[in-house]
Design brief:
alpha+beta, 84 residues, 6 strands, two-stranded antiparallel ribbon, two-stranded antiparallel sheet
């Protein structure tokens, strides 16, 4: 699924230290995917030979799969299940 991300500048915060005059910028960054797991997790499970938990992916034919290789060739499912 398409990732959702945004960022915005934050406040100037005192950095501390003995002078107390140094500041630094703090930004807020939000980065998330709407899939049940990260694509990298499918790759980690594939390399480890571990099956996928139910509801994480479908194969190239759109059928649910526990095979990470088939899931990588197919599609990841959204978190929270079907949104149809």
């Amino acid at each position: 699924t398409n990732p959702i991300s945004f960022a915005y500048p934050g406040a100037r915060l005192a950095a501390g230290g003995s002078s107390g005059s140094a500041t630094h910028e703090v930004a807020f960054v939000w980065d998330m995917a709407t899939s049940a797991c990260a694509r990298g997790e499918l790759e980690v499970l594939r390399r480890a030979g571990v099956p996928l938990p139910e509801g994480m992916a479908v194969d190239a034919d759109g059928k649910p799969t526990a095979d990470p290789t088939a899931g990588l060739a197919g599609a990841q499912l959204p978190f929270g299940g079907h949104k149809g």
